[in-house]
Design brief:
By secondary structure, this protein is of the alpha/beta class. It has seven helices and eight strands; from the N terminus they run E-H-H-E-E-H-E-H-E-H-E-H-E-E-H.
Length: 223
């Protein structure tokens, strides 16, 4: 993998004589575009997620003839401002919102868990690689929200849906659940009157989707 580089401004350089220094950088020369690696360090995200944010238009950028991305500094600063507006606000409670995430795919589990560690959001996230294990934890460690990435066969997905529905019917406060699946019309196959607190979303799950979801959870807990 090629390493992307860009000009670096030396803000500590001082001119000691009155003559113009031809080597000194001026404000107009401050780079307006950063490499993917530099943008990732600036935002505290992985380079993969930064590339995806560019592809979906959340960050503005372009590619050089050599195939390297250059990302607009203005769009990076704007993204930072929006993020601080969300994460810098006080929460409705003194504790962080709790989210349980279940991902049965080993590769995706490792990838998204590593991404979440990098984001360092003000939220308590617990990862499980088994729906059964997560369900066993619900009674003693009930989260505020639960996300399940369902890559198992359709019959098992229906059983998972029903198990979560049964849990919500027994509890005093229904658990907000998002099921991510590639199976079409999964909810339509459930009995009439199924809990409205269970939402079915077309998959697959991605780092961008998870980042947006967790940001939304944090925003919903603002005063």
């Amino acid at each position: 993998m090629s390493q992307e580089t860009s000009a670096v401004i030396d803000s500590n350089r001082f001119v000691t004589n009155s003559k113009p220094n031809p080597l000194a950088k001026t404000p107009a020369q401050t780079p307006q575009f950063l490499s993917t690696a530099e943008a990732a360090r600036m935002l505290g995200l992985s380079t993969t997620l930064v590339q995806t944010l560019v592809d979906q238009g959340d960050l503005k950028g372009w590619k050089t003839r050599g195939g390297h991305r250059r990302i607009s500094l203005d769009s990076i600063l704007g993204y930072q401002t929006d993020a601080r507006h969300v994460t810098g606000s006080s929460l409705k409670s003194s504790t962080k919102p709790k989210v349980t995430i279940v991902i049965e795919s080993p590769t995706l589990f490792s990838e998204l868990k590593a991404e979440c560690d990098v984001w360092n959001m003000p939220i308590d996230v617990r990862f499980f690689d088994s729906v059964t294990e997560a369900l066993l934890e619900l009674s003693s460690q009930k989260p505020d929200m639960m996300v399940v990435e369902m890559s198992m066969p359709r019959p098992q997905q229906e059983k998972t849906f029903q198990a979560l529905e049964n849990f919500n019917q027994r509890g005093h406060t229904p658990l907000s659940v998002v099921l991510i699946t590639s199976e079409k019309a999964l909810k339509a196959s459930m009995p009439a009157g199924a809990s409205s607190s269970i939402q079915v979303v077309s998959g697959p799950m991605s780092a961008v989707w998870l980042h947006a979801y967790l940001t939304g959870v944090i925003a919903s807990y603002r005063v």
